[in-house]
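Quick one:
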Amino acid sequence: MSVGVAFQSAALFNSLSLEDNVALTLREHTALAPSIIDLIVWMKLAVVGLADFGKLHPQELSGGMKKRAAVARALAMDPEILVLDEPSAGLDPIVAAELDELILFLKETFQISALVVTHELDSAFRIADRIAMLFDGRLLAVGTKDEIRANQHPRVRQFLDRVPGSPVHMPALASYLERGAKLLRIGLVAQVLDQQKPMFVPDLPLVSTAQKRYGILSTPKLQGQQFAPEDVEMLSALASHVAVALECALARDHAERYQRELASERDRLRLVLEVNNHVAKLDIDDVLRSASASIRSYFGCDSVTFWVLNEETGQLQKMLQDFPDGKGQMTAVASADLSAAELDFEKLRQREAEIWSLEDFDRLPAALREPLKAESIKSLAFACLATENRPLDVLSMASRKISSSRRRFQPP
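Output:
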């Protein structure tokens, strides 16, 4: 049984267009031709009313459009069951009502079963055939809309009638609970506390400094004893010490992050300095050979290659390659024709790196692609080494691993 899921936050990939977001599962899990995938994507977007917005990215969409886009992606594989997590959360009543009508349309037109998680009573009673109410991890009630409306379970009535819960859930707790008030027992804790005498708490001291409020310090007693005035005074002083400790911990964490950023910048500047020092006393081959070792160390790559670029033909002529652990497969590669590889020369000219994953290698000519694969290379980065006036040549870095947290590449 196939299931499609539309997440509460839409969970769209911001780096992909709306079309590519919907097409992603089709490309990953089917062998359909690109033209067929494009047709399916257009149809799914048309179903949710977004056929004219496929080229936009998620950050260009409104909240309601993102919700509908998530539904289109969930429908891409034609699931038997459609799961919608809070589809109308955070939307104004008009847009929420439009989503309700979309769900009804999908259910009736495509004969699809929809499982909707929602706290919106109007939506639930508008779109549902049957309703189930969950509380504390278990089903309290299951039935038709009329059966749920007539259900007399206290929690069901509280939810349907919008009756406030205990003060422990209300903003008043942020001030204090009156001394001697009985604290509500919730969940598994209740099984233990029900055997104890009532729990008493003093006026809750605020954990705060002059700059920030962190919360409340609660110190209950389990034996029904009142707090003495000196105990309350001591707890207030303790709350102040806790706040200072929290502020120190947060400041230390901020300082450690700043030190890591400084260390990264220091490493980058050291690389630039090493290159400049080599330029001052070596010829160009020695400069490139010496610089490549520093580049490999800084970026953690396996191979560094310097190429001379002919922008008119797209031909790269190899000047020097540093591949200490290579198997020799790249030795015979003296040049590479990238005229058909769609390498973004304008991006390189703007001193921006172009980073390719293994899937992009198909764009390379076989004379370069096959040796790279034979060397088990999985990622490749291109950058233009340039002066203020003109590009000099192209630097490529190859790696046998794909890092989930690569450093931002910026040519020195």
